[in-house]
């Protein structure tokens, strides 16, 4: 700073500046003193602005050290500014110090989801990638609670300068939010009134504050952050908002959105009991009620906490029962549940604002609890009520309905489940609470009688009794409900239950009547007088024979009698001039009287069997039509009217010339938006097929095809020889040509024997075609010519069946087509079936024209010799994309591929070869090509070597079934690193052993299938062993072995006299062995091989006649804890006398489940307990010999089931201690007198499920409590000859088997 020279003229000004400077330094001393005092006591931290101010004053002092002299003074403006800032500090409350941020009061939260969400949110806030997060979910689900935890954690653990919490709420306005933010920043009141200036001040303040996190709780609508003054992303500033609407998150441009879901059942119960805080243990009856109450709270933390708090101190069970009943009836009255929960949820309903949307929401609550409601059905219900009457077209009404459903999903009032939606239980309770004074909703309540007339008040507007089981209807019931507009009783009336005529007499205001799916035979005549009725729904009333006169129902807009298969006539239908929707499909009404349909000029949706051409051409408002035409002229009249004159038609299924039975078989019974399609099915002989936009080349009879058709099927069109006249069909996606006797080409001259989709002189008639299906066209030899004059950019699938003269898809060529672009760039699948003259599917030279061909399937082609013929293609290996090959019942095929071609198919993932009697191997022998050399996969250049290694890096599934001439998988060395599943079924000729790798020397060699996961062997008649005893193989990823119907199978591995000298395990990942109907097998494994199966958890042995033991041979030389077997199932092994010797069982300490069934020869489950061969036993503790032990422990055994073992005399000679048992069943074991299981006595809730035959067996169980049997007596149930103790596992086990072990077997 430069010095200012004093002159006589500014002497007074300099004196005034000196006084101000002295005052400034005085203020500096005071402020420093206050800060030093606060710092010494660790009271508060100085504000950033104050620290900056002190630094500026210090800089001024250093720049003007002689400021007391008149020769050197600082600029007056600088001194004035610093003085002004000091005065600002004084005016503000605690202006020198940062506002102290305090923790917010937390509620307890439980569950893994809560911890996961907390961790995820913290990671986003602490990291640098995301700066704007949206947390959304329904009201009461815990969004605020989780953010309170986040807020407090941030204060404790992060280096944020500020964590600011603002509750926004429904009555949001920008100015209030600015005031709240200014206040939490410690700036007091924001005096500025201009919103833009306030935003600038707030933005500046946040930027100076530094790294900050702003939490905006309970945001209901979006706003512009810049207008408020929140500079998200700048200078480390981040923002988190909570809202009930995902739409708000999108509109606020949240970079990450996290939905908070309701609690799971276990977590919900834990939270309830924690909040209940009862010091007295709940008895079993109250515990069951608590479980039901928690279920009614549907995982909503707010509801759970509210209910738990309201039930504190309640001890009488009748109070608990009364509470549960009120909850189930959604009738909580003026309780905390209503005031704290339902009213909170109702805010979301109130904020919908639009009455139309609110009515749609309330309509959803008329369905049953937990119902997955079809969206199409729901929108139809909205339309039936007249909620969208201002929209004239039905398509527009569907759009509106989908928009409203999306809005309700966005604000978490509905849950999206694809094509269905669901209401959360408490959201539904809130909706029912809103409608409580004007509705009866008893949907799917199991009612057998309709509610009595006392409930039917004159205020009723809606009644939903759907999905009940009414077996009777009061004869003279006549409710007086003049305001009732909706009555839903679909799927509620049993067969032969009638509705009395009196019932509808006083329901003149009724607008929607749904009796669909009821067992009614007749409808009461009083329905004829419901003059305000808009929708009469009788869908699938299959017993209904008669519908009363309809002529008075002038306002009726919808009549649905689909599948009322006994109804023969409708009287007065022609009088329903306002009818928009008519479905008469699958009734006995085959054709309406002439003039009836023509009178219904407002019809938008029509589904009938036969139509009269003169009548249907009058229906200009039609948007959807499904019908059948007998007459070609009628069909053509309708097509001209509908498409040449451009009416409203959006969807159609039009069929002509079929027999009625075929018509019903092919028609769509469920026409749904937005899956509407445009379909034409023609079954006419001697007619040309002509598009409404094209011209016929002949002068004979024609059938007009709508130009916008999407799916076209033409059967038995004997008069057509090509399809050129059909075009152009710009929107055609699927084309099916069935039984065209004289068809030679799709487009082109009649003398050709091939199908050419396009001639060089014509434009492409089907540019959108993606599926081409050809069936039973006897004169076709080829589909396409070799000239490059066709291009099908969207064709994805070709299917050819029963074309007896078909030789090949494309004519064979001597050189690749000179086509610069692929002819079939999108083709993925080729399917060929019963084309007996075909010898190959494709010529290899055509492969460049199929760059995306993924799948080839060839079935029942008698003379098929190869899949792809000719020399290998001149393209890079990686550009041939074939992934899947299936060959079935092709008796003349010996090898699907030559070696030279297979090396080009590097993308192959799955091969299936079934029932090919001539098949010798997958790959033919390595041979010379035409020049005497072969092509290697590495360089794709000729090589003289005949020993090329084939590498199939992506092949993961190989299935070989019923190949009697099969010799080998590969005749050349092949590596498949990705192989996961290998199935060999009914194959092989001479081999007695399968080795995954066959090496002449006993050294560790690389396996063929290092990634093999699943090996299945079935019906290999001469197979004796899977693996030899040499330790030359390793299958590191093999998880399952399945062996079935191998009659000569002796063992998985050959028995050896000493353990294999292989240091690492040969099968380190094998978890599951399944053996079925291998009658010569005597054991599954040799014990010395156990060390090679360190993760074997599951063994199943079924129908093995001569099986004697599961694991044979001497004791394994591995520690007991390293044998991991968890599950054992033995069924129908008649020669097995003992399950395990005692010495081996001691090594199986991880066993959790044992199931033995239908083994007639089983005498003893555990043999030799108490004495070994040397007169000593091995204990499970130290795996060393000891004298006879008093008991054996199976510490992890959870499930023991012994069923139908007629010779079983003993389970074990010494007691079995089973502390973890959850289920014990001993049934149909007549020779067994005692069950020596030693069990723990626990609370009834934790007891196992026990089922034994007879009281004597029950008494032999050993409990660790002397009074256990007496205490359990009241919980015993006698069912026939069985004694049953129903513990907590009973229901779970009956529904899902051994649920407890699921986690242990995830990898199996």
Question: What can you see in these coordinates?
Answer:
The structure is a single chain. It is globular, with a radius of gyration of 41 Å. It is 22% helix and 19% strand. Helix 6 (174-184) runs parallel beside helix 7 (195-209) and helix 10 (265-276) packs across helix 11 (284-296). The protein has 26 helices and 60 strands. By secondary structure, the chain is α/β, with parallel strands linked by helices. The longest helix is centred in the N-terminal third of the chain and has 30 residues, at 11-40. The strands form twelve sheets. It has a 32-stranded mixed sheet. A five-stranded parallel sheet has the order 2-3-4-1-5, sandwiched between helices. Strands 52-54-56-58 form a four-stranded parallel sheet, with no helix packed on it.
Mean pLDDT: 81
What is the tally of helical segments? 26
Largest sheet: 32 strands, mixed
Using the CA coordinates, give the radius of gyration.
41 Å
The helix content, as a percent range, equals 10-25%
Q: Give the beta-strand count.
A: 60
Head-to-tail CA distance between termini: 81 Å
Low-confidence stretches: 1-6, 660-666, 748-752, 758-762, 927-947, 989-993, 995-1005, 1172-1188, 1288-1308
Helix-strand category: alpha/beta
The fraction of residues in strands falls at 15-25%
Shape: globular
Secondary structure: elements and pairs:
Elements: H1 11-40, H2 48-63, H3 76-91, H4 112-126, E1 132-136, H5 143-157, E2 162-167, H6 174-184, H7 195-209, E3 212-219, H8 225-228, E4 238-243, H9 246-251, E5 256-259, H10 265-276, H11 284-296, H12 301-310, H13 317-328, H14 336-350, H15 355-364, E6 373-374, H16 375-385, H17 394-410, E7 415-417, E8 420-422, H18 425-435, E9 439-441, E10 462-464, E11 486-488, E12 512-514, E13 535-537, E14 558-560, E15 581-583, E16 605-610, H19 613-616, E17 624-629, H20 632-644, E18 651-656, H21 660-666, E19 678-683, E20 688-691, E21 702-705, E22 711-715, E23 734-738, E24 771-775, E25 797-801, E26 829-833, E27 842-843, E28 855-859, E29 868-869, E30 884-888, H22 899-902, E31 910-914, E32 934-935, E33 942-943, E34 950-951, E35 957-963, E36 974-975, E37 981-987, E38 1014-1018, E39 1025-1027, E40 1040-1044, E41 1051-1053, E42 1072-1076, E43 1083-1086, E44 1098-1102, E45 1109-1112, E46 1127-1131, E47 1138-1141, H23 1142-1145, E48 1153-1157, E49 1164-1167, E50 1177-1178, E51 1185-1186, E52 1192-1193, E53 1199-1203, E54 1216-1217, E55 1223-1227, E56 1237-1239, E57 1249-1253, ...
Parallel strand pairs: 1-4, 1-5, 2-3, 3-4, 9-10, 10-11, 11-12, 12-13, 13-14, 14-15, 15-16, 16-17, 17-18, 18-19, 19-22, 20-21, 22-23, 23-24, 24-25, 25-26, 26-28, 27-29, 28-30, 30-31, 31-35, 34-36, 35-37, 37-38, 38-40, 39-41, 40-42, 42-44, 43-45, 44-46, 46-48, 47-49, 48-53, 52-54, 53-55, 54-56, ...
Antiparallel strand pairs: 6-8, 7-8, 32-33, 50-51, 57-60, 59-60
Helix pairs in contact: 1-3, 2-3, 4-5, 6-7, 10-11, 10-12, 11-13, 12-14, 14-18, 16-17
């Amino acid at each position: 700073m430069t010095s200012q020279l004093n002159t006589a003229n500014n002497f007074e000004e300099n004196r005034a500046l000196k006084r101000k400077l002295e005052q400034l330094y005085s203020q500096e001393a005071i402020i420093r003193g206050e800060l030093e005092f606060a710092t010494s006591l660790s009271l508060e931290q100085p504000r950033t602005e104050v620290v900056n101010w002190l630094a500026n004053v210090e800089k001024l002092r250093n720049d003007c050290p002689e400021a007391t002299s008149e020769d050197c003074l600082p600029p007056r403006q600088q001194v004035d500014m610093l003085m002004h800032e000091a005065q600002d500090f004084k005016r503000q409350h605690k202006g020198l110090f940062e506002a102290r941020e305090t923790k917010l009061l937390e509620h307890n939260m439980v569950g893994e989801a809560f911890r996961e969400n907390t961790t995820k949110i913290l990671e986003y806030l602490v990291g640098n990638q995301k700066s704007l997060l949206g947390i959304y979910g329904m009201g009461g689900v815990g969004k605020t609670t989780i953010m309170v935890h986040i807020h407090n954690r941030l204060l404790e653990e992060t280096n944020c300068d500020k964590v600011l919490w603002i509750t926004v709420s429904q009555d949001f306005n920008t100015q209030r939010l600015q005031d709240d933010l200014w206040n939490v920043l410690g700036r007091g009141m924001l005096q500025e009134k201009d919103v833009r200036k306030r935003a600038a001040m707030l933005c500046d303040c946040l930027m100076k504050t530094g790294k900050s996190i702003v939490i905006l709780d309970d945001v209901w609508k979006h706003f512009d952050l810049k207008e408020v003054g929140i500079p998200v992303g700048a200078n480390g500033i981040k923002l988190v908002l909570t809202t009930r609407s995902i739409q708000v998150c999108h509109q606020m441009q949240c970079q990450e959105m996290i939905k908070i879901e309701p609690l799971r059942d276990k977590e919900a119960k834990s939270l309830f009991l924690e909040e209940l805080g009862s010091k007295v243990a709940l008895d079993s009856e109250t515990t069951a009620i608590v479980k039901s109450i928690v279920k009614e709270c549907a995982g909503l933390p707010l509801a759970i906490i509210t209910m738990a708090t309201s039930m504190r101190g309640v001890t009488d069970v009748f109070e608990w029962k009364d509470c549960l009943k009120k909850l189930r009836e959604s009738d909580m009255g003026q309780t905390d549940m209503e005031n704290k929960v339902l009213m909170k949820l109702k805010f979301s309903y109130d904020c919908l604002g639009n009455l139309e949307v609110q009515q749609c929401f309330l309509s959803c609550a008329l369905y049953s609890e937990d119902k997955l409601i079809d969206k199409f059905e729901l929108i139809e219900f909205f339309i039936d009520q007249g909620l969208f009457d201002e929209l004239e077209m039905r398509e527009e009404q569907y759009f509106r309905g989908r928009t409203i459903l999306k809005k309700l999903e966005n604000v978490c009032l509905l849950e999206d489940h694809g094509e269905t939606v669901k209401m959360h239980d408490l959201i539904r309770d809130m909706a029912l609470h809103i409608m409580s004074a004007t509705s009866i909703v008893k949907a799917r309540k199991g009612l057998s009688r309709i509610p009595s007339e006392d409930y039917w008040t004159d205020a009723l507007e809606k009644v939903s009794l759907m999905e009940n089981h009414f077996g009777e209807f009061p004869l003279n019931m006549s409710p007086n409900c003049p305001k009732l507009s909706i009555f839903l009783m679909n799927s509620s009336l049993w067969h032969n239950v009638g509705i009395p005529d009196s019932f509808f007499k006083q329901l003149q205001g009724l607008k929607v009547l749904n009796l669909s799916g009821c067992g009614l035979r007749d409808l009461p005549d009083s329905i004829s007088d419901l003059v305000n009725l808009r929708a009469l729904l009788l869908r699938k009333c299959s017993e209904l024979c008669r519908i009363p006169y309809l002529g008075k129902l002038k306002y009726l807009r919808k009549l649905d009698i689909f599948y009322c298969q006994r109804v023969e006539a409708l009287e007065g239908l022609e009088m329903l001039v306002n009818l928009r929707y008519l479905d008469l499909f699958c009734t006995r009404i085959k054709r309406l009287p002439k003039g009836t349909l023509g009178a219904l000029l407002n019809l938008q949706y029509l589904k009938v069997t036969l139509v009269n051409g003169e009548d249907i051409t009058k229906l200009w408002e039609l948007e959807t039509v499904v019908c059948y035409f007998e007459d070609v002229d009628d069909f053509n009249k309708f097509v001209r009217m509908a498409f040449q004159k451009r009416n409203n038609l959006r969807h159609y299924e039009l069929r002509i010339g079929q027999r009625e039975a075929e018509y019903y078989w092919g028609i769509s019974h469920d026409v749904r938006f937005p899956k509407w399609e445009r379909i034409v099915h023609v079954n006419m002989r001697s007619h040309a097929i002509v598009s409404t936009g094209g011209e016929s080349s002949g002068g004979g009879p024609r059938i007009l095809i709508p130009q916008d058709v999407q799916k076209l099927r033409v059967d038995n069109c004997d008069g057509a020889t090509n399809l050129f006249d059909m075009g152009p069909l710009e929107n055609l996606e699927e084309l099916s040509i069935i039984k065209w006797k004289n068809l030679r080409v799709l487009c082109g001259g009649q003398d050709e024997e091939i199908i050419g989709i396009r001639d060089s002189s014509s434009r492409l008639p089907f540019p959108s075609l993606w599926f081409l299906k050809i069936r039973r066209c006897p004169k076709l030899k080829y589909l396409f010519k070799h000239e490059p004059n066709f291009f099908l950019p969207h064709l994805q699938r070709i299917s050819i069946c029963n074309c007896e003269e078909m030789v090949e898809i494309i004519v064979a060529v001597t050189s690749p087509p000179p086509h610069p672009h692929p002819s079939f760039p999108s083709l993925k699948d080729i399917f060929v079936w019963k084309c007996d003259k075909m010898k190959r599917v494709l010529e290899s030279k055509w492969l460049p024209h199929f760059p995306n061909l993924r799948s080839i399937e060839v079935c029942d082609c008698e003379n098929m010799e190869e899949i792809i013929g000719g020399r290998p293609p001149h393209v890079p290996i990686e550009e041939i994309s074939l992934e899947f090959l299936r060959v079935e019942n092709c008796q003349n095929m010996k090898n699907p591929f030559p070696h030279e071609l297979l090396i080009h198919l590097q993308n192959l993932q799955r091969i299936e070869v079934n029932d090919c009697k001539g098949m010798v191997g997958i790959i033919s022998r390595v041979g010379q090509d035409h020049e005497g050399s072969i092509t290697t996969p590495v360089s794709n250049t000729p090589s003289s070597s005949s020993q090329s290694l084939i590498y199939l890096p992506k092949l993961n599934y190989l299935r070989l079934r019923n190949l009697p001439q099969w010799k080998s998988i590969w005749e050349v060395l092949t590596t498949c690193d990705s192989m996961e599943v290998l199935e060999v079924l009914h194959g092989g000729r001479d081999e007695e052993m399968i080795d995954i790798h066959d090496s002449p020397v006993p050294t560790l060699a690389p396996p063929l299938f290092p990634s093999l996961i699943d090996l299945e062997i079935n019906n290999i008649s001469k197979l004796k062993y899977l693996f030899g005893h040499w330790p030359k193989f390793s299958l590191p990823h093999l998880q399952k072995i399945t062996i079935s119907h191998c009659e000569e199978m002796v063992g998985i591995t050959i028995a050896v006299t000493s353990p294999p000298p292989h240091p690492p395990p040969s099968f380190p990942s094998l978890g599951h062995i399944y053996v079925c109907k291998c009658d010569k097998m005597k054991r599954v494994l040799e014990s010395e091989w156990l060390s090679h199966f360190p993760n074997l958890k599951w063994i199943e042995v079924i129908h093995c006649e001569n099986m004697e033991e599961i694991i044979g041979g001497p004791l394994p030389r591995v520690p007991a804890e390293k044998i991991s077997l968890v599950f054992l199932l033995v069924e129908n092994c008649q020669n097995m006398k003992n399950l395990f010797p005692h010495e081996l069982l001691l090594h199986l300490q991880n066993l959790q489940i044992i199931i033995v069934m239908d083994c007639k020869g089983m005498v003893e489950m555990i043999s030799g307990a108490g004495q070994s061969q040397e007169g000593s036993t091995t204990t499970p503790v130290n795996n060393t010999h000891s004298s006879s032990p008093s008991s054996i422990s199976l510490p992890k055994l959870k499930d023991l089931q012994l069923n139908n073992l007629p010779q079983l005399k003993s389970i074990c000679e010494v007691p079995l201690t089973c502390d973890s048992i959850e289920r014990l069943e001993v049934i149909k074991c007549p020779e067994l007198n005692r069950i020596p299981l030693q069990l723990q006595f626990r609370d009834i809730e934790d007891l196992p499920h026990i089922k034994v035959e007879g009281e004597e067996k029950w008494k032999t169980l050993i409990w660790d409590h002397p009074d256990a049997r007496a205490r359990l007596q009241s919980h015993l149930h006698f069912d026939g000859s069985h004694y049953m103790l129903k513990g907590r596992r009973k229901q779970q086990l009956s529904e899902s088997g051994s649920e407890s072990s699921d986690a242990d077997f995830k990898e199996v």
